[in-house]
Amino acid sequence: MAFQPIVDVTAQHVVYYEALVRGPQGESAGSILGQVTDDLLYRFDQACRIKAIELASRLEMQESLSINFLPNAVYEPYACIQATLETAQRVGWPVNRLNFEITESERVQDRSHLRRIIDSYREMGFSTSLDDFGNGYANLDLLTDLQPDSLKIDRELVMGCNNDHRRQAILRSVVVLADNLGTKLVAEGVETREESRCLVDLGIAVQQGFYFSRPNLEALATIDPQKYL
Fold first, then answer.
1. Does the predicted TM-score (pTM) go above 0.85?
2. What digits encode the pLDDT tens for the residues 136-191?
3. How confident is the model at residue 104 (pLDDT cuts 50, 70, 90)?
4. Which one, of 38, 44, 54, 43, lies nearest residue 3 by Cα?
5. Which one from 18, 101, 188, 195 is the annotated catalytic residue?
């Protein structure tokens, strides 16, 4: 696992860390996920959750931990969460400091099943995020059924937003949408100071990207305070 910080630029602190899958030699998440067959999906998803919590505890992380999960690997929310709960209890990790990011939403055919997962996780004290928001029509459509705690705005909308009036217009609309739905926003893929400043001006202060820190393999990043200014 590698950990990448998500920061609140206005409040000037790390909100939480996202756990990202890596190979034994640091290989990318894509190269690892490409090897996971359907029959291994559940075991892989469970192993990643356990590994992320154990590492976060070992690194003495004080912030919340965000873990990606594959909805199709969760056949029943309460049954599939037991190993996660047991691990959290064993290492002393509070459940209210766990966030689950929904990935590969375009492959989810059963919206009611995904809604049950989100609702069940909320009842158990977890928070949830919808990843890659704005990447395709499916994300917007998902919001008719789902109530995630936060939306992670895809890099495609963030990239060069400081010089792109169309992106700025879309981002302003997303801010209004999130406010009306009572959902928080996180901007992904922030790579420059100019992008970060533009996002803050648009009302999106919680950000993630190489500008703040690249993912750190089994380590937590130290953020340069100047990057908050």
1. yes
2. 655 787 888 889 999 999 999 999 999 999 999 999 999 999 999 999 999 999 99
3. low
4. 54
5. 188
- DSSP conformation letters of the chain: -EEEEEEETTTTEEEEEEEE---TT---HHHHHTT--GGGHHHHHHHHHHHHHHHHHHTT--SEEEEEE-GGG-SSHHHHTHHHHHHHHHHT--GGGEEEEE--GGG---HHHHHHHHHHHHHTT-EEEEEEETSSHHHHHHTTT---SEEEE-HHHHTTGGG-HHHHHHHHHHHHHHHHHT-EEEE----SHHHHHHHHHHT--EE-STTT---EETS-----GGGG-
β-sheet bridge partners, residue 66: 18, 99
Distances from the Cα of 212 to the Cαs of 20, 66, 143, 154, 193, in angstroms?
16, 17, 29, 17, 9
Question: Is-catalytic flag, 76?
Answer: no
